[in-house]
């Protein structure tokens, strides 16, 4: 019965989180843990589900040209590297520690989702440590001094606890790189796929892979990713930010309560 409920919940999470570029890994982990799956197994399964779902959404966004492949390979490569190390190091921590880290990331994600965002590009004279990113419509300045360490850190903790890091990547691209929200969401889907894959591989080295229950969950969640990607092109994600922030806060409280009580 719990498995059926999980199969119904995960696609709904995928729709909403894909629309905001949030990934949804934190909510996948929460759903699996509340269903009785041990934290380490839940983290591994969430990473695989994330990979499959984000890949499906990336295909939808790519067809509509709202993915910056330059940012995908640069920021995505950094995030994936951090995620692999995080996934490998996760087994040096207890399940309780991982749950508390996970809860802290949810709270950070909620705060970032509420930050005001200006989508216009910012132009500056060329300086060392700044990357001038040109697209067909505008030019954006990427502050490498800020983006590189933050991206590596986001990937590390995402891989460790089985989340995508999308809740950190979207604000990072919009606030630090001045990328439009729609492009940030599309680009994040590609980076989330890379991060999730590397985090999953890091977990598999320690725990192996049981496809009997993970593959069915991934299959139904992919449908949610496709639907969410299509809806993103029609709905402005900013209308969902407050809702997602509230959900993240509630999820953090539930996880902390389940861990400490």
Summarize the structure.
This protein has 261 residues and is mainly α.
Explain the overall architecture.
The protein is mainly alpha-helical and 261 residues long. The chain has helices spanning 2-20, 25-34, 39-63, 69-89, 95-114, 144-161, 166-176, 181-207, 211-232, 241-260, and strands at residues 130-134, 139-143. A two-stranded antiparallel ribbon has the order 1-2. Helix 1 (2-20) runs antiparallel to helix 2, helix 3 (39-63) packs antiparallel against helix 8 and helix 5 packs antiparallel against helix 10.
SSE arrangement:
Elements: H1 2-20, H2 25-34, H3 39-63, H4 69-89, H5 95-114, E1 130-134, E2 139-143, H6 144-161, H7 166-176, H8 181-207, H9 211-232, H10 241-260
Antiparallel strand pairs: 1-2
Helix pairs in contact: 1-2, 1-9, 2-3, 3-8, 3-9, 4-6, 4-8, 5-10, 6-7, 6-8, 7-8
What attributes characterize this protein structure?
mainly alpha, two-stranded antiparallel sheet, 74% helix
How many structural units, i.e. domains?
Answer: 1
Secondary-structure element series: HHHHHEEHHHHH
Structural class: mainly alpha
Please give the number of β-strands: 2
Beta-strand percentage? under 5%
* Spatial order of the strands forming the largest sheet: 1-2
Radius of gyration: 17 Å
End-to-end gap: 25 Å
**How would a textbook summarize the main sheet?**
2 strands, antiparallel
Uncertain parts: none
Nearest-integer average pLDDT: 81
Overall, the morphology is globular
Count of alpha and pi helical runs:
10
Helix amount: over 70%
What quaternary form is this? Answer: single chain
